Amino acid sequence: MGLANHELPPPPEGKYPAKDHARKVAHFIRDDAKNGEGVIYLEAQKTHMVEDDDQAQHFRQRRFFYYLSGCSLPDSYVCYDMKKDHLTLFIPAVDPEDVIWSGMPLTPKEAMEKYDIDDCQTSDKVNSYLASPETSHSTVYAIPKQIADHITFLSFENKNLDTLRSAIETCRVVKDDFEVGLIRHANAITSHAHTEVMKMVKEARNERELMGTFIGACISNGGREQAYGCICASGTNAATLHYVHNDLSLSNKYNLLIDAGCEYECYCSDVTRTYPLRGSFTKESKQIYDIVDEMQTQCMSMLKAGVRWEDVHARAHEVAIDGLRRLGILKGSDKKEIFDSRVSTIFFPHGLGHYLGMDTHDCGGNANYEDPDPMFKYLRVRGRLPAGSVVTNEPGIYFCRFIIEPALKDEKYAKYIDKTVLDKYWDVGGVRIEDDIWIKEDGYENLTTAPRTWEEVEALINGWERDVSAEESLGRRLAESVLQGMNLKF
């Protein structure tokens, strides 16, 4: 039996702290614009209809709007008067005709009880609010291309469309405890779903069955939305970083790499596990798994506020080089020379991780995709990690023919690669291990509780009896995560 819903740690209680977020953004704007007055204006995502049909498209709330409202309703608006410290939400009015089909919507009175706001009005009152003499009219701050045609800012002395997006993106990097609680809960659901896939992997016939098991387990436990498209890659498909097919047969394949995470109340999880389809790793697969495990472990030991992410990423490459040299895949006596050649990027081409929050690849990372250095070109976070940020730690080693075979023809890289040894590892495909990490002043908390070591994974897949089963280990780590988040000892 898997963990039932009531056995998962509960989500955080209380209202989403929209008002605190509004104040935080306003403080950033004041420092940037030297102005203490004005109105922050944001719109929710609109309802869009499917082309040639009378059904609405799948709805995903705008994250900028949600950050200052906590509201998941479409066709809504939020205004924050910075001088008055007053947050007003505007939601669609009751449409009697729509009620026939969809039932009663949220009312302004119910919204006042549900959201951290000072006032709630219907959305037909937005322009009246903006033009009201009681509203501060110095400057309105909005985001370009997120302003409806019927909205007018004529009553404002100034219109600033340059500051708000960057202000919110900067503020979102550092999460408050409520936000971390949402990410932790998304991770609890996701870790449970990964465990459910492990338990049935030997019975599955194709990738789509495993993907369906994962998504079903998420939905059953409150994670109705997926944070991103599931990557369910078997065999050599695991060498494709963002594999999309998810429907091929599992026959004659050794391993499964599943990168999948649910979303809970607009906050994401992002977790990857790699494990054997037949219950036990092959010799070559286990060797690569152990290297990736060591990469993640050593990087984890470096994590705390102020650490330079480039240094952590470089450490992952150093560990990868050590491991691949031990196996004989890489050759050469000068470790620094091998590191400087960047040959390790042939096997580990992506960045170590990225910020995580309301988006899977969350904002504020300041990536530099124009960097000529292949080791850092795809690194989604640059600079030092602040306390309160959440980042993924996801090293990997891949045997992708489309990268490695051209490298074997380039003497710059080929002289460091032993092709005879390499040929033993193609069927491994790829190994990635990914956890979601909350950065603290003096360390970190791992928010991901899915079984991770190959011993736990193999035991769970095979149903082996152990002193502490993999599922019991998951339950213990779920409890540890919650207690650690409350600064308690387990």
UniProtKB/TrEMBL annotation:
Residues in the signal sequence: none
Ranges for domain Aminopeptidase P N-terminal: 16-148
Pfam family, one: Peptidase_M24
Recorded catalytic activity of this chain's protein: Release of any N-terminal amino acid, including proline, that is linked to proline, even from a dipeptide or tripeptide
UniProt xrefs under SUPFAM superfamilies: Creatinase/aminopeptidase, Creatinase/prolidase N-terminal domain
Keyword flag Hydrolase: yes
Keywords: Aminopeptidase, Hydrolase, Manganese, Metal-binding, Metalloprotease, Protease
Family membership: Belongs to the peptidase M24B family.
Stated name of the protein: Xaa-Pro aminopeptidase
Taxonomic classification: Eukaryota, Fungi, Dikarya, Ascomycota, Pezizomycotina
